[in-house]
Amino acid sequence: MDSDVLRLDASFIDYAILASYFAVVLGIGVLARRQVSSSIDFFLSGRSLPAWVTGLAFVSANLGAIEIMGMSANGAQYGMPTMHYFWIGAVPAMLFLAVVMMPFYYGSKVRSVPEFMLRRFGPAAHLVNAVSFALAQVLIAGVNLYLLGTIVNVLLGWPLWLSLIVAAAIVLVYTTLGGLSAAIYNEVLQFFVIVAALLPLTLAGLHKVGGWEGLKEKVAASPGGAEQLSAWPGNELSGFSNNFLSVVGIIFGLGFVLSFGYWTTNFVEVQRAMASKSMSAARRTPVIGAFPKLFIPFIVVIPGMIAAVSVQEMIQYKGDGSGNVTYNDALLLLMRDLLPNGLLGLAITGLLAAFMAGMAANISAFNTVFSYDIWQTYVVKDRPDGYYLKVGRWVTIIATVAAIFTALIASGYSNLMDYLQQLFSFFNAPLFATFILGMFWKRMTPTAGWVGLVVGTSSAVFVFILSETEVISLQGQGASFLAAGVAFVADIVVSVLVTMVTAPKPETELRGLVYSLTPKADLSENRTGDEAVWYRSTPMLVGVAAVLTVALNIIFF
Q1: What confidence tier does 3 reach under pLDDT thresholds 50, 70, 90?
Q2: Quick one: 173 exposed, middle or buried, by C-beta within 10 A (0-12, 13-18, 19+)?
Q3: Would you state the pLDDT for residue 44?
Q4: Dist CA 314 CA 73 (whole Å)
Q5: pLDDT, tens digit (0-9, with 9 covering 90-100), for 360-395
Q6: Do the record's keywords include Transmembrane (predicted)?
Q7: What is the Cα–Cα distance from 517 to 520, expressed in whole angstroms?
Q8: Which of 89, 194, 248, 264, CA to CA, is 20 to 30 A from 157?
Q9: How many angstroms separate the CA atoms of 148 and 163, rounded?
Q10: Among 263, 283, 281, 267, which Cα is nearest to 361's?
Q11: Closest by alpha carbon to 399, among 365, 423, 429?
């Protein structure tokens, strides 16, 4: 994006709103620092937060570049099939995490997903998982940082490299000061700021194009046509011309492998639930997050669709690929055209809040996994707790600097969702295969754990190379869906074969780590006091969320 083409004409009031927000963010970091006296406070908030806080933080941690710019870019490029990332590719997995996975995480008192892998499969699988996860977090943090820098660039006209450094410094200050508590409380604040910013933009955009009916008419007449108004079969999104293969690709590749791999094993999300004050609160965390997740697409996908038919530069780019903009610019262009001063400042603040939420989530997860699962386990063992707290703060600085360089990789993609889905197919799909097989099959061996991860990741990278060299040709995000499916199947097959010729762990070491060997009492919520009221029942909340998910898929079929 060229800042000479896209500049947001902000006024004094817009900058005042922005400055006030940053003052509050840094203030939260300073206040949270007073609560940090140990590493468990820094990395897991002392396991003391209520479910509504962790629930909003759970969804807000994901409400970064993926959700805001990535999904609006997807909306501009593909239309309504983008809804699959929410109603097929998120909520079902969030509910599964609450019902099945969270009791294992919280009940075993592990501090990270790699630590769970250590106890189930041993050091080799643990190290492979920890290193791959840490790498993924720095790469994804780069996406959020790139978009942060982009906003600074279009506001002030600064070069991208300077914008990246300034944006990184802001996130670094409050994450280093207050650890996970600072990140979580800021994520709750950022959730409300984001909604307050994007809702007026959506309403103003719908008014401009003549309401919902007017939008449908304009989308039907635009490149891509009326297919963009139906979520299914989503051929352009999946890259498959055959309707049946497209549906299978979306349900298996996105809805099962990528979605369950992300939401159930991604420590960025799980870390928020593990900061809850009880098992019941931990299980409710992803369910509470599922309710706003169902409706967020209406304020991120719809603006992208509006931009594609109402902003001249986007109409030209979608028509013939010309111009100095990309799909990633859809939301910024719509803000430029529609929002008056004041609302523009709020919208800019909302975007910055989203990108800081995403980046802070990645960095806080990275520092936990690196400090506990790599440094403490394999490099420097048996030091006082204060030593690892100090390491965590230094690692936060190092990861933030590294994200500046990975942001430059993200800058090469016209639609950031293409890049992110590639990363998820590399890292999340094989981890989910290993995790789910090890959780439900007690015979699976430690050797199978790490070999399956390596083969699964390698197979996803191989599919990516075939796609990049055009040996296989899939448009949209079909190559990522295929890579995820191949990684999952390869991991399962190799894990089963290796298990047949290697020795398993004794059953006595697998309590709390394998479903069939864990007493039901260890997995129960045991709700008492305020948590015993009917509206805090996890099964009831899961049922309501599931019904709403099915209803939305039917309405927008």
Answers
A1: very low
A2: middle
A3: 47
A4: 10
A5: 777 777 877 888 778 888 888 878 877 877 887 788
A6: yes
A7: 9
A8: 194
A9: 8
A10: 267
A11: 365
3-state helix, strand, coil in the chain (%, to 5): 80, 0, 20
Q: What's the CA gap between 94 and 316, in Å, rounded?
A: 38
Is the per-residue pLDDT at 493 higher than 90? yes
pLDDT tens track for 29-68: 666 555 555 555 444 444 556 666 777 777 776 776 567 8
Question: Exposed, middle or buried, 355 (CB in 10 Å: 0-12/13-18/19+)?
Answer: buried
Residues in the chain: 557
pTM given for the model: 0.76
Mean pLDDT taken over the chain: 79
CA distance 459 to 438: 20
Residues 206, 212 contacting (CB under 8 angstroms): yes
Q: Where are the alpha helices (DSSP H) in 311-445?
A: 312-320, 330-338, 343-368, 385-410, 416-440
- Of 449, 464, 392, 497, the C-alpha closest to 128 is 449
Q: Where does the pLDDT of residue 2 fall: very low under 50, low under 70, confident under 90, or very high at 90 and above?
A: very low
| 207 residue type, one letter | H
Query: What is the distance between the alpha carbons of residues 292 and 279, in angstroms, rounded to a whole number?
Result: 22
**Owner of token pair 């070069």:** 159
Contact (CB, 8 A) for 243 and 233? yes
- Short-list 388, 462, 506, 431, CA closest to 136: 431
Which residues, in sequence order, are CB contacts of 240 under 8 Å at separation 6+?
A: 246, 249, 474, 478
**Beta partners for 49?**
276
Contact between 51 and 285 (Cβ < 8 Å): yes
| pLDDT, mean of residues 230-257 | 76
- Supply 311's token pair: 């902003």
